[in-house]
Amino acid sequence: MQVHHQDHTTAAGTVTGTVFTVAANIDSHDYMRTVILACVGAIASFVISILLKWIWSKLRN
Predict the structure, then answer these.
(1) Which of 1, 21, 42, 57 gives the lowest tally of CB atoms within 10 Å of its CB?
(2) Is the model's pLDDT at 5 over the cut of 60?
(3) Per-domain residue ranges for the chain?
(4) DSSP character for 4?
(5) pLDDT, tens digit (0-9, with 9 covering 90-100), for 9-41
(6) CA 32, CA 10: separation in Å to the nearest integer?
């Protein structure tokens, strides 16, 4: 029986390095655009959920 030992430090270091490299190369306007689009998406999702619940309740009655 062979035991496999995985070293997660290499994967974690690679992912962390990639994230920091990408973050350093992104302009601050891109961060602001991402935040705004995330807010718009969250609001749209919430409104659609409420609308679908309202429609579903009307169809059931």
Answers:
(1) 1
(2) no
(3) 27-61
(4) -
(5) 888 888 888 888 887 887 878 888 989 999 999
(6) 32
